[in-house]
Design brief:
With 120 residues, this protein is mainly beta. It has a single domain, classed as Metal Binding Protein, Guanine Nucleotide Exchange Factor, Chain A (Beta Complex). It has one helix and nine strands. The strands form two sheets. The protein has a six-stranded antiparallel sheet, with no helix packed on it. The protein has a three-stranded antiparallel sheet with strand order 2-1-9, with no helix packed on it. Strand 6 and strand 7 form a beta hairpin. The termini are far apart.
Length: 120
């Protein structure tokens, strides 16, 4: 069951307010999962501080996400969605740090974090 804000972001392709996610400050070892279906999407080792106000990652787990062109807001962007359930997660941009050069800029409300005390 999604909250009203999760539904707005994940099913209606909304965007949460920058800086509003507790996951911006999440730095423990673990994984970030889809808030709708629970699929593992990103490892915590791939997370970095992009300075944008949204949780950002260098790369997703293999096969975890899908992308499609987004022409809303009078610009061309690449939307990121969960490969399992199709939930809207955010967008990916080619302005991230090495080694991938990508910035997967995700809505924190679309993610759920699980800590892994062993750092795996």
């Amino acid at each position: 069951m999604l909250t009203a804000e999760q539904y707005r972001v994940m099913r209606r392709h909304g965007t949460e307010r920058a800086g509003s996610s507790e996951l911006n400050d999440e730095h423990r070892p673990g994984a970030f999962h889809c808030a709708a279906c629970g699929a593992a999407l990103f490892d915590s080792r791939a997370k970095f501080d992009s300075g944008t106000g949204w949780p950002s990652f260098l790369q997703p787990r293999d096969g975890a996400i899908g992308t499609r062109e987004d022409r809303n807001l009078f610009m061309k962007r690449t939307e990121v969605h969960c490969a399992h359930c199709g939930g809207h997660l955010g967008h990916v941009f080619p302005d991230g740090p090495k080694p991938t050069g990508m910035r997967y800029c995700m809505n924190g409300v679309a993610l759920r974090f699980t800590a892994d005390p062993d750092g795996k």
